[in-house]
Known about the structure:
This protein is of the alpha+beta class. It has 2 domains: about 10-100, SHC Adaptor Protein, CATH 3.30.505; about 115-175, no CATH class. The chain has 3 helices and 11 strands, in the order βαβββββαβββββα. Strands 1, 2, 3, 4, 5, 6, 7, 8, 9, 10 and 11 form an 11-stranded antiparallel β-sheet that branches.
Amino acid sequence: xxxxxxxxIVDVNIELNSVIKxxxxxxxxxxxxxxxxxxxxxxxxxxxxxxxxxxxMNILHFLITNNKVILFTSAIQNFIYLQKIxxxxxxxxCTVSILRLPLPVPKDKDLSLIxxxxxxxxxxxxxxxxxxxxxxxxxxxxxxxxxxISYTMTKTEYEVTKIIEITIKILEVFxxxx
Length: 178
C-alpha cells in the first residue's frame, strides 16, 4: 500500500472487471500506461507523460471498488487520463464521472445516521468538514464540492477503504433528491 491523504471517486459506466488489464500505449509523443498490482488486482498505477522522451512521468495510484475507481490525487483533472485508458481498453462507450456534492450544498441534511461521523460542519460552497472515527482512530475528512476528498494521512488499506465507504454514504445523503 501507499501513503494517502486525498482522492477523487470516479464512477464508471462499464463493468471494470471485464475490461481492466495492464496496458501501455503511445499517442503522438504522449505515453499512457495502466499497471495492476500482482498481489491485489484491484489496485494499481496509471502513468502518463506529454513527452515520453523528455517529459515528467506522472504517477497516479488507484483502487477499484464496486465499479468505482478511487484515484489518489489532489488534482481533479487526473480523471481525464483514466478516461483515455478506459476508452482504449473498452469496445463500449465509456463514461466516467466524479462523485461530488451538489452546489450549493444543502445545509438541512442530517448525517447523524452515519455512525462513524462524530461531528460535521456544512459550508454550502466549500463542502463538508467532518470528524470520523475508524477503530478508535479520529480522522478529519473533508469533502469538497468539486469532488476532491481529503483526509488525515493514512497508509492502511483498511482505513482508506472505510474512508471511501463513509464518503460514499455522505454523498448518497446529499444526492438522494438531486
